[in-house]
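Bug #2210: token dump truncated for non-specific serine/threonine protein kinase?
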Amino acid sequence: MTTSKYPKVVGYDLVQQIGGCGFSRVFRAVNVPEHRVAACKRKTIEKEMCIHTALKRNNILEFLNIVVVELKHQDHYVPGLYLLLELAAGGDLFDKIIPDIGMGDEVAHFYFNQVMAGMDYIHKEGVCHRDRKPQNFLLDVAGTLKISHFGLSSVFKLKDTGRTHTLMERCDSLPYVAPGLNSDQPYEAELIDVWGIGVILYTLLAGNTPWDEPTQHKIFQEQPWSRFSALIQGLLTTKPREQFTLEDTFQHPWCIWYLNQGAASLAQVLTQSLRTAGDLELVSTDLAQRNSNSSQTQSSMRYTPHLTRFYADLPPEHILPLIRADLAALGVTCRDAPSAEGALRLRIGRQDAWKEVFRGWVSLETFQYHEAQGCFCVMQKDSGNPISWRQLWWALIQSPRFGAHVLRKQGT
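Reproduced locally. Full output below:
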């Protein structure tokens, strides 16, 4: 019997796992002869595929193709549905947000309007998304927002007749659950998504969610709620008859601004809060001014969208015990993982303040630092809230035991 492997999907080789959750794994897929890159998701259920194939829009992650590997071929390939998708090379939108600070109003408006445009199209196609959490909003290489992950979505309207029906299934993720899901009664699909985008808007502006879980506590007159005033209150009211629709939201004065930015200038605006907070000093040190014989690792020269990374002045084998000890002190579960392409790796996970589990990898590679060996570290999230992941990254690099070894840019 041969070892099972992943198949080639319509000319694309699955070269690197870049994400996943309990029901799927996501790989970077490369078509070498055609010089093309995509993402490939291996699924064990068909519902997401059926809905995603029908959605074609600029703010929807594009569905490209599918390959089915049946159980009878399991001696040669890993069985499942392989969905070939557009590669969101810009990574998570919410990876660019400073926890508890958020982003500027102009950039938040720019991306919120794209969220609304994507959701408006989805609803007109008769689909309710029902899983509008931060990790499902991605960016392409030009900074365009892409809505992804349709595993919890459902059809609520027939396009040919316009006839709608209420939904019964209870799903969604804390703390994005709408009040309509807190009872056993049928609910209106569109209003569930509207509630979710209200939480997303709050998160863009405040850098956090308004609550850890559904609550009856009245906080609309408190800071920072009062800063956002009527728009968020209209989206997040618990009274269905008073809740904004998407059409109401489009007409709100705050949503009429327009930010006209090219890809390069947009990247500068999007990451301004990271520069202000000093985060970007840690993810890209000024190696060019160091010893002329020094060089980065092969992996750090390759594509990596993850801003939760840093350089350290000790080699991987010396840094790894420090990271393991500090993560354990932060309540993070760690276990050693097999090395990959010469990198030492840890598999880590924890439940965050929103009672959502996040999981990911810590990968450590060697690079030349002056005349000695240093370490290039990437913290890659597989699943969970990107804001929680960034909070963990920040706590690790600021820890007394390990933080002293983290390199900053020269001259800052």
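Output looks complete on our side. The radius of gyration is 22 Å. Marking as cannot-reproduce; reopen if the truncation happens again.
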